[in-house]
Amino acid sequence: METIIKGGNLMIFAAESMSGALAEPKSIPLATSHTLRISSDSQDVSNKDVASGLWSANEVSQLSWEATTDNLYCDKNVSWLFDCMTERKLLQLYFAPKEEADGTELPASGTWGADVYKAFTGKAYITSLEITAQNGENATLSATFTGYGKLQSNYSDETGGSNTGGSGNTGGNS
Q: Residue 156 pLDDT > 70, yes or no?
């Protein structure tokens, strides 16, 4: 029987490049929702040979992806996201289950670990940062990460090999 992953255990993790090496991926504090959106552009290739010109025909021309995070506002997450956006840092993103999926308390490190062997991963820039502060409500922030190049699937079977056509590596884009 397949294991169903609860939404609270599937998160966005980001890592910065530090002196040419990739830092440990970290979760963004106080997340309430994460979304990964994969889409394609299509090009019209309609012609007289396809259903006598009555039906349109399209083919995929490009793939793209983006991820969004919605969080409660805190100094730690807004500062880091703002710096990454304004410094135009290319981040390594992971959309993955957290390693401590059975735990209910945040680890002592202050961030969840990513199960990078069961992740969608790719490089991305922060292209939008929105802070909302409604009277009488908790302040929130939302960030959009726009993919730069290929999104890979690192889902692995029990032996460590990739079973979904992805590269199986944790380094993201080559």
A: no
